[in-house]
Amino acid sequence: MNQSKYERCPPIGAEVYERLSARVGRCHVDLRLGIEHDRETRVFGQGRSFFHIENWYSIHGLIRYALRLCLLHGRGQSNARRIRVRHNEFVFERLPEAFDGFKLLHISDLHLDIAEGMAEAHIDAVQRAGAYDVCVMTGDYRNKTFGPYRRALEAMGRVCEQIPVPVYAVLGNHDTIRMASGLEDLGVRMLLNEAMPITKGTAAIWLAGIDDPHYYRADNLEKATDPIPADAVSILLSHSPEVYRQATYARFDAMLCGHTHGGQICLPGGIPVMLNANAPRAFCNGPWAYHGLQGYTSAGSGSCIVDVRLNCLPEITVHTLRRGSPAG
């Protein structure tokens, strides 16, 4: 696909480039920018999946037309703004007592600039989430995979104003690495193949985050796990569940991800038509486990391609950490 048809992202400034390079290394920044320049709008190839419907822009209007023809478009738009608050528990034997009952608010796939009213829907959901200790976000803050991103950052700023606790996040396949500095200016701590401790007194758990593993394949688990003590409870933030095997072998205790939207447009009974992830379907929505790794894939709080949800409501999730023996 010829990217000259599309509006490119604004050039990266020297200050932002140096700021990112000091954090994650020039090689990472140069590789990410190079792939964005050459391949960010590809429909076929590139990444862990062969087909990328989000980049096939000529079909998006056809999907809208088909939904209107079936009298489902209006209902789907209403559903897309009905963000529910879900709850999940993780149980760890080695969890420090100070973290028993610790809560993480998990938000994924916001796509805030897809349509009017999406920021307001997120603000309402966050206000209904109750109390939590930290917030984590697992990527896809804008709708398109290319071009300007100012509207998405402005909407993110409005949402983040409603979150009174530290926010940690990773990038998704819709996000340019240029957005990382803008997100950090909003108070979001980006984890770009990095890890950091979350402390309560002398106790700590570790939170790691990798760059997009789905399309850009910019993830580096070795680098992200390097500072984590071997006996520490560790949680991985990944945009996609597709690295579940690698996360298991890297000895993470839990993994939070998104990307799949739970299908977004599903058949009755919540059966997804498409998930766009090279992972077992059981790992593409809600809680799952793999060889001791506990995982959760969010159905996402936003919508992609069209601002419609059918038989799959959007969500934000409050995860509660518990000390004990995991079931099974």
CATH architecture: 4-Layer Sandwich
Mean pLDDT: 90
The arrangement of helices and strands along the chain is HHHHEEHEHEHEEEHEHEEEEEE
Given helix and strand content, the structural type is alpha/beta
Low-confidence stretches: 1-6
Descriptive report:
By secondary structure, this protein is of the alpha/beta class. The protein has one domain (about 10-325): Metallo-dependent phosphatases (Purple Acid Phosphatase, chain A, domain 2). Helices cover about 25% and strands about 20% of the residues. The strands form three sheets. A six-stranded mixed sheet has the order 1-14-2-3-4-5. A six-stranded mixed sheet has the order 6-7-8-9-13-12. Strands 10-11 form a two-stranded antiparallel sheet. It is globular, with a radius of gyration of 19 Å. The protein starts with 13 loop residues before the first helix and ends in a 5-residue tail after the last strand.
